[in-house]
Amino acid sequence: MYLFYQSDIINNSICNLSEDESRHCAQVLRLKFGDVIHITNGKGSLFTATLNEVHHKQCVVSVQQEHRQQKSENFRLHMAIAPTKNMDRTEWFVEKAVELGIDEITPIICARSERREIKTDRLKKVAISAMKQSLKNFLPQINEAVPLKKLLEQPITDQRFICFGDAADEANLAHAKVNEYHNLFLIGPEGDFTAQEITAAIEKGYQPLNLGKSRLRTETAALHVVSIVNFKQAATAY
């Protein structure tokens, strides 16, 4: 199955693929006139289309059928993560989180952050690639980086957690009730959150959470949360 992404695709129409997708179609996959492909809008729809014109700068397709996937309105996973000094590690997290299933990612700048400038356009490209690779029809929302203090000031209706190394043993992720709600998790930088940041988050209603006895890298901790939360959500769906 060849899956492409086009945010503005419309059913029963003639559509031009973006230049990036056209290049992948024509030069990488070497598809030809008449070949059938699938296109997602990243919002839950999967379209069947036939190639009318194939060119590395612009492929033209005839969109013939739409299949709509419904997403749970009760469950939502939002990860606010401090970007790592090495952006490859943050991009790795985004890729794997999208493959496993995540709804929203917000880079946060903390007191101990070693990286304060984030190219969110690059993260969005990684997310799109991972969505297509894992044959998903929902593209997670990738937000611009925001200071942790500003995020804490925002009115949030989600169930909120802050993960840090010194959280009490009884506040382990394994026991947290995160499977039926909109959930927001905070993951700090390499040096973890400061005591002041933890206190500020708890005062804003964030529940402290520990991820076990091992000291995890930032991106590993975040992916651990994504894995466990998705497992909990899937287990209750059956």
What report would you give on this structure?
This protein is of the alpha/beta class. It has 2 domains: 3-68, Ribosomal Protein L25, Chain P (Beta Barrel); 76-236, 3-Layer(aba) Sandwich (Alpha/beta knot), CATH 3.40.1280.10. 30% of the residues lie in helices and 25% in strands. It has 6 helices and 12 strands. It has helices at 19-28, 87-100, 120-133, 148-153, 195-203, 218-236; strands at residues 3-5, 14-16, 36-40, 45-53, 60-68, 76-81, 104-109, 141-142, 146-147, 159-163, 182-187, 207-209. Strands 6, 7, 8, 9, 10, 11 and 12 form a 7-stranded parallel beta sheet that branches. A 5-stranded mixed beta sheet has the order 1-3-4-5-2. Strand 4 and strand 5 (60-68) form a beta hairpin. The protein is elongated, with a radius of gyration of 20 Å. The model has no long low-confidence stretch (mean pLDDT 90).
Helix content: 25-40%
Annotation, overall tally of beta strands: 12
The arrangement of helices and strands along the chain is EEHEEEEHEHEEHEEHEH
Average per-residue pLDDT, rounded, comes to: 90
Count of DSSP-assigned helices: 6
Strand percent estimate: 15-25%
The global form is elongated
CATH superfamily of the largest domain, by name, is SPOUT methyltransferase, trefoil knot domain
How is the CATH topology of the largest domain named?
Alpha/beta knot
Q: Roughly how many Å is the radius of gyration?
A: 20 Å
